[in-house]
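Form 12-C: Joint structure prediction
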Amino acid sequence: MMMMGKTLLAASFVLAGAVAAHAHAQLESANPRVGSVVSAAPSVLTLNFSEAVEPAFSSVQVTDAGGRRVDGGKMRVDRGNPRQVQVPLQALAPGQYNVRWRVLSADTHKTEGSFGFEVRP
Amino acid sequence: MSSLAFGHDWRRRFPRPSAQAGTVAAFAGLAFILYGASPAAAHCFAGSRFFPATLSVEDPCVADELSLPTISSFKTGDIPANRELDISGEFSKRITEDFGVSIGRTYTRLWVPGGPGAHGWQNLETTFKYQFLTWPQAEFVVSAGVSVEWGRTGNASVGAEKFHTVTPTLWVGKGMGDLPPSFGFARAFALTGQVGYAIPTWRRTVTVTSIDLDTGDVELDEERHRHFLEYGGSIQFSMPYLKANVVDLGLPDVFNRMVPLVEARFRTPVANMIQMANTWDENNRTTGTVNPGIIYVADKFQIGAEAIIPINRASGKGVGWVAQLHFYLDDIFPTTIGRPIIPISARIGQ
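Section 2 - Result
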């Protein structure tokens, strides 16, 4: 019993030590913040992920309450910080907006998510 | 896939996925040799929803995972109750993107009041699982499969049976993120469930209890092996989902990685029961536990702990506990054992 316990413990430590590879890219923060109400219309949407993002296989769409796209085109991954994605926005009128993102992390894991924010002067 | 295991009494009632260290190592070695190449989804994702590996019911997906160890301690439903400690592990491997196999086993130690204790291995268990439906927009996942407990692979001293038990099972997961935004925090909830039908390969075991040497009379004891309906589920509140998809409350990261949950698992005998006229056989009642707890989700592993609360005396005595360390092999070894051996997918909706 003791021997088996030690073996299990050792195996767990080995695995824990192996935790150096990439993981799924999760959204860590956004600006505007997820679910927030902002008084000034942002001109850029910034997403910060937990892993580096492959821009060629990733996308971000921002739509208004009517489903019309209000992002200003192609997303951009920061060269100095490949975990950060920026998307230019059109001039946003007061209202609710939805962000839908799909990204591929460096180790080919796909993740996606969506959130809303509101512009209320 | 994943989940856990629980001691002889608990485990006998609730067949678990777990695993023996040696078997795990052998399987891992084989997987290293056979590694394939494919784009990876893995984990248990349905759209934006991540279903963590739950401790007492299985999550509804096929994945490359290792639960090692899972440790549980509780008092059994025997009268008087025995104290039981279980240490188990489970290794899950995707063969294709949608089809996986898991192998698990449990080491049990029993303390019997006023009697000798016992320790040994429970029977080896294998689960074959096919994730046939993934509906990302609805955060909905369905898998079907069969679990097999292999008889004569464990120690009878801790209750391992000589016969096999085959359990066809359906697993379901549903996130609430597709509710309208007005539902707010409720969108961070998710439900998982499973239902299976356990069929022993022996209908009964007959043992000779005594022989009268004068008359030659033989006294026999017959034990019927009942069929069980096994069902359960979990309700989860995902702080990671809340932060990334509903509202970022600006909480410290440690809170944003927690998933408080309540799991429940039950077992009801439904066939091959002993019928006694005008009497209620206590052995034929539903047993089960309700397990409130919490899972901490890190990038490449998770840690979970739950209380084990029996629903009646036949299910156990007092409150036990279970804890688990669980590794996401698809993240730790993304180019080797974290990938399906054959990178094809035939699932609906993804």
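Section 3 - Comments
The mean pLDDT of chain B is 87. Chain B touches chain A at residues 21, 24-25, 39-43, 45, 47-48, 66, 68-69, 87, 89, 107, 109, 119, 136, 181, 240, 243-248, 250, 299-301, 325, 327-328, 330-335 (CB under 8 Å).
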